[in-house]
Amino acid sequence: MKILEVKDLTVYFYTYAGVVKAVEKVSFDLYKGEVLAIVGETGSGKSVTTRAITRLIQPPGRIISGSAIYRRDGEEIDLLKLPEEELRKIRGAEIAYVFQDPSSALDPLYTIGYQIGEAVAAHRGGKIKQYFSEAVDLLRRVLIPDPESRAKSYPHQLSGGMKQRSVISMAISNRPRILIADEPTTAVDVTVQAQILQLFKRLKEEFGMSVIFITHNMGLVAEFADRVAVMYGGKIVEEAPVEELFQNPRHPYTKGLLRAVVNPLNPQGRLEPIPGTIPNLINPPPGCRFHPRCLVAIKGKCEREEPPTVGERHKVACWLYV
Ligand SMILES: Nc1ncnc2c1ncn2[C@@H]1O[C@H](COP(=O)(O)OP(=O)(O)OP(=O)(O)O)[C@@H](O)[C@H]1O
Ligand code: NI
């Protein structure tokens, strides 16, 4: 069952240098209870896409067009058209985010327990104090040792990994239906990263939460994702179940990414830049945005016309498959 259906999402940034076409006609689905990974080089539009789902785009950015249909109890809600007041009730509660930098999500002046209580109270009402024991419970859930005393700690008293887990416990405090984790793992080492994703997996199984996670680490994708969307230059170029993508990548860009991963000198499977530079999104290449870097581009075609997306379970946008 689809819980979220993003269609033709387009987001531009109006800068002095020109209009940055950061995300253009991006479509993808999220199913109930699945983990969808979004991968792609820096600047490919992963964060902008996921932030736009609940309209977390600040000026000079603007959502130009598209829809984001959120399905809840038989209801269909277009998040891009919902009045801000109603969207605010969904954002943070039903659709929660964990952002790149855990420190920026925590207030140094308040204890962790207080801040988690605050997150709960914001959506359920009542006094922050009454949620303290729930905060301790949440910290236990994200495997923080000695949660009673941790709840009384201030952010600076915690390690990076602990801070990240505290932020996650805030994000899951209202049992979101969708959790969006934007590189939740860069602040911590790989073992902790894997533990956190393991935790998401458990939450997904426990209460059917759907997860979108953004990462540069293909090892984590292979281990934790059900499906993968690959972004390049503001577009999704390929989308497939995870085993399918690893065994049978179709887009030349995806193939390049995966070649970089099986490199034994790169044991953690981090994405390595493939030859060439990421496109300028003020003047993106015409046709297929990847064509200037593509070793198998079809002359007279790829630099002229944009490839359509074909396929059902395994989607690809490349002229080689049309
Ligand atoms: N405030 C802004 N002003 C102008 N351009 C922006 C702004 N925010 C994002 N962009 C542009 O939008 C594009 C997509 O950025 P985005 O942050 O979504 O990339 P990303 O895939 O998340 O990269 P990373 O892996 O580094 O996090 C980039 O070209 C970026 O320069
Ligand atoms: Ni990002």
UniProtKB/TrEMBL annotation:
GO terms for molecular function: ABC-type nickel transporter activity; ATP binding; ATP hydrolysis activity. The keyword Phosphoprotein does not apply. It is found in: Cell membrane. Coiled coil: none annotated. Its main location: membrane. Keywords: ATP-binding, Cell membrane, Ion transport, Membrane, Nucleotide-binding, Translocase, Transport. Residues 4-258 form the ABC transporter domain. It is a peripheral membrane protein. This is Nickel import system ATP-binding protein NikD. One of its GO terms (biological process) is peptide transport. Its EC number is 7.2.2.11. The complex is composed of two ATP-binding proteins (NikD and NikE), two transmembrane proteins (NikB and NikC) and a solute-binding protein (NikA). It holds the Pfam family ABC_tran. PROSITE patterns: ABC_TRANSPORTER_2. One of its GO terms (cellular component) is plasma membrane. InterPro entries: AAA+_ATPase (IPR003593), ABC_Ni/Peptide_Import (IPR050388), ABC_transporter-like_ATP-bd (IPR003439), Oligopep_ABC_C (IPR013563), P-loop_NTPase (IPR027417). It catalyses: Ni(2+)(out) + ATP + H2O = Ni(2+)(in) + ADP + phosphate + H(+).
